[in-house]
Design brief:
This protein is elongated. It has helices spanning 17-31, 45-52, 68-81, 91-100, 123-128, 141-149, 166-170, 176-182, 203-213, 231-240, 256-262, 278-285, 298-301, 316-327, 330-343, 349-364, and strands at residues 5-10, 35-40, 56-59, 85-88, 108-113, 135-138, 157-159, 190-194, 221-225, 247-251, 265-268, 290-293, 308-311. Helix 1 packs across helix 16 and helix 3 (68-81) packs across helix 4. It folds into 2 domains: 5-163 and 348-364, Glycogen Phosphorylase B (Rossmann fold), CATH 3.40.50; 168-345, Glycogen Phosphorylase B (Rossmann fold, 3-Layer(aba) Sandwich). It has 16 helices and 13 strands. The protein has 381 residues and is an alpha/beta fold. Strands 3-2-1-4-5-6-7 form a 7-stranded parallel sheet, sandwiched between helices. The chain has a 6-stranded parallel sheet with strand order 10-9-8-11-12-13, sandwiched between helices.
Length: 381
C-alpha cells in the first residue's frame, strides 16, 4: 500500500493509558513504512519518550480546546506536512483539529474515544464527534454503544481495543523485591490495584471490601499503584477502617510485570470511565487472576468465572465475596490465571496497530484492510 503521513494530536501533559497506546501506535505505524508526526504539548511526557525512540515530535503549549494560537499552529502543520490522516487522541484535540481544518478539504480525520462516561444527554458531545470528523475509533463495544445511543451513526464508529506489549509480560518476572519493598512477606496474601488515584477508580469500595475480609484474612495486604490527588483520602479511609498498616501506596511504576508477579489477585474496582483497561490485560498476561467491576469494556476482555470474576460496581459485599472466594482457593486462582493468559493473546499491541491501520486504509481508500476493526470475540480467542 502507499505509505501514509499521519499527524497524531495529543493534548495531555502526563503519560497514562492513552499516551502509551499513542506511542506504540506511532512506533508500529513507522515500522510499517508510514510517516508519523506527533503534535504535542510543550511539556509532554509522551513527547520525551517519543523523541527518545526517534519519532518526529512537534511541540507547543495548547491551552484548552479553544486556544487560537494552538489552532493556528495546527493549521500550519497541516499546510506544511500535508498529512493523509489526522488522528485525535484526546477530546480537546478533536476541537482544536476541527477548528484548524476550517476552510480546508483534507486531511481524513479520526478520533479515538477511550472512556465510557455517559454521553447520551450531551448535544455538544454529538456535535464534536460528528462535525467534520470522518471516523471514531472506540476502544470497546460498550463505548460504541454509548456513542450510538448519543446519536452517532454506527457506520461512523469502529471498535479497536487497546493493546498491551505481550512480549514484555511473557518474560519471567520476579515479584520478590516488590513485596520486600512494601514489607509484605512471601506467605502473606497481596491484592494489587493499578490505576490513577481518582474518584472513578472506586478505591474506597476496595478498601471497605478488604476491611470486611480482615477477620478471615488478618494478614491480607493491598498495593495501590498510581498517582493522583486522593492519596490522603485513601490513607485516612484505610486508617479509619483499621487496615492502614496493610494498605501500601506504591506510586507510579514502570515495572508493572514485577508488580503483577507479586500479586495474588489483581483488582479493578472502578465505578465509571473504563473503556478497555490495559491493567486488566496486563494482569491476565502474567497469569494473575482478576476481580473487576462489570463496567465499560471489561466484560469484553474477560468472561465471568472463565478468565476472572466480574462484580457489579458500587457493590462492596459482592466485591468482598469474589475476593474471598479466590483468596481461599489457590487452585482456582491458578486456573483462572492460566485461562486469562490464553485469552489476552487477542489483545496484543500488534493487533491494535494492525486494526488501526486497517481503519486508515478503508477511509483513505488505499487498499482493502487485512481484518475487521472490531472487538475480539469474548471467550476463547
Amino acid at each position: 500500500m502507499t505509505p501514509l503521513t499521519v499527524l497524531h494530536v495529543n493534548t495531555e501533559h502526563g503519560f497514562r493509558g492513552g499516551e502509551i497506546q499513542n506511542l506504540h501506535l506511532a512506533e508500529g505505524l513507522s515500522r510499517r513504512g508510514h510517516r508519523c508526526i506527533l503534535a504535542l504539548q510543550e511539556e509532554s511526557a509522551l513527547g520525551e519518550r517519543a523523541e527518545e525512540r526517534g519519532l518526529d515530535v512537534r511541540r507547543r503549549p495548547m491551552q484548552g480546546e479553544f486556544d487560537p494560537m494552538a489552532v493556528a499552529w495546527l493549521s500550519g502543520l497541516i499546510q506544511q506536512e500535508r498529512p493523509h490522516v489526522m488522528h485525535y487522541h484526546t477530546s480537546h484535540a478533536v476541537t482544536l483539529g476541527t477548528l484548524a481544518r476550517l476552510g480546508r478539504r483534507g486531511p481524513t480525520t479520526v478520533a479515538t474515544r477511550r472512556t465510557s462516561f455517559p454521553t447520551r444527554r450531551n448535544p455538544l458531545f454529538r456535535l464534536k464527534f460528528s462535525y467534520r470528523l470522518d471516523h471514531v475509533i472506540a476502544v470497546s463495544g460498550s463505548i460504541k454503544k454509548d456513542m450510538v445511543d448519543a446519536g452517532l451513526p454506527p457506520v461512523h464508529i469502529s471498535v479497536v481495543h487497546s493493546g498491551i506489549d505481550l512480549e514484555r509480560f511473557r518474560q519471567q518476572a520476579d515479584g520478590t523485591e516488590f513485596r520486600r519493598e512494601l514489607g509484605v512477606g512471601p506467605d502473606e496474601l497481596l491484592l494489587g490495584c493499578v490505576g490513577a488515584l481518582a474518584p472513578q477508580k472506586g478505591h474506597e469500595h476496595l478498601l471497605r471490601a478488604m476491611a470486611a475480609l480482615s477477620p478471615a484474612f488478618p494478614h491480607l495486604h493491598l498495593a495501590l499503584l498510581g498517582e493522583g490527588d486522593r492519596q490522603e483520602y485513601i490513607l485516612d479511609e484505610a486508617r479509619n477502617l483499621g487496615i492502614g498498616d496493610r494498605v501500601h501506596l506504591a506510586g507510579f511504576r514502570e515495572e508493572i510485570p514485577e508488580a503483577n508477579a507479586a500479586f495474588d489477585v489483581a483488582v479493578l474496582p472502578s465505578v465509571a470511565g473504563e473503556g478497555s483497561p490495559a491493567v486488566v490485560k496486563e494482569a491476565m498476561a502474567m497469569g494473575v487472576p482478576v476481580v473487576a467491576t462489570r463496567i465499560g469494556g471489561v466484560g469484553e476482555i474477560l468472561e465471568h468465572d472463565r478468565q476472572g470474576l466480574l462484580v457489579p460496581p458500587d457493590d462492596e459485599a459482592a466485591l468482598a465475596d469474589a475476593l474471598g472466594s479466590l483468596l481461599r482457593d489457590p487452585e482456582r486462582r491458578r486456573t483462572l490465571g492460566a485461562a486469562g493468559r490464553s485469552r489476552v493473546e487477542a489483545f496484543s499491541m500488534e493487533q491494535m496497530i494492525r486494526r488501526t491501520e486497517d481503519v486508515y486504509k478503508r477511509l483513505c481508500g488505499t487498499e482493502k484492510g487485512t481484518g475487521a476493526a472490531t472487538a475480539p470475540r469474548t471467550g476463547k480467542p
